Amino acid sequence: MSKIVVVPGSFDPITNGHLDIIKRAAKVFTDVRVAVMNNSSKNSLFSVEERVALIEEVTAGIPNVRVESSSGLLIDYAKSIGASAIVRGLRAVSDFEYEMQITSMNRVLDESIETFFIMTNNQYSFLSSSIVKEVAKYGGEISVLVPKSVELALKKKYNQ
Questions:
Q1: Is 133 annotated in the active site?
Q2: Residue 42 appears among annotated catalytic residues
Q3: pTM summary value
Q4: Is 18 a known active-site residue?
Q5: 96-140, pLDDT tens digit by residue?
Q6: Where are the domains of the chain?
Q7: Which residues contact 91 (CB under 8 A, 6 or more apart)?
Q8: What is the mean predicted confidence (pLDDT) over 43-57?
C-alpha cells in the first residue's frame, strides 16, 4: 500500500498553522505531498508559483515533504500520484462540517483514498490565511503567525 499522503490547500499564504499540520503529517507518513490547489473561484494574493516557492522554502528542512500544484479535483491529483490518503487540518468544530462534506464527496469519487484529520495546536486555532492577509494589509504584526519569508513576501505585496 502506498505511503504517499496529500496535504492540500490554497495556502494563500502558508501560515504557521499550515506548517504545523505539514510537520506533524511528515512524522507519521513517509512521503508528504503538499498540494497547492489552484482554485479559480478564489481571488488569490499570491500566484500558484509564488505559493509553491514559499512553501518549498519553509519546508526545505523536512526531507519527506514535496510541494506540487494542481488545478483539478483533489481526488484526481491524489490518484495520479498514487496517494493512499489525504490529511486535512481542523481548527474548530465549525471546520468539521465543511471538511465532512468534502471527505464524503471524495469517498464517492474514490473510496480507496482515506482522509485523516489532524487537530491544529490550540495556539493556531484562530489562524487562517484570510486573517493573516487582512492584518498584513493594514501593517499589523504578523511575525508570530507566519514564517519570516512569508512575512517579508506579504510586506512586499502590500508595499510596506
A1: no
A2: yes
A3: 0.93
A4: yes
A5: 888 899 999 999 999 999 999 999 999 998 999 999 999 999 999
A6: 4-124
A7: 17, 120, 124, 125, 126, 127, 128
A8: 96
Report domain 4-124's class: alpha beta
Q: From CA 19, how far away is CA 25, in angstroms rounded?
A: 10
Determine the pLDDT at residue 98: 87
Question: Quick one: pLDDT at residue 39?
Answer: 77
First to last CA, the chain: 49
- Which of 42, 137, 148, 155 is catalytic? The answer is 42
Which of 33, 51, 129, 133 does the annotation list as catalytic? 129
Q: Are 88 and 118 in contact (CB under 8 A)?
A: yes
Q: Is 91 annotated as belonging to a binding site?
A: yes
**Is 90 annotated as a binding-site member?**
yes
Q: Is 124 annotated as a binding residue?
A: yes
Taking the C-alpha atoms of residue 118 and residue 19, their distance in angstroms, rounded to an integer, is 12
Tell me, what's the pLDDT at 157? Answer: 95
Pair 131, 138: CB distance under 8 Å: no
129 flagged as catalytic: yes
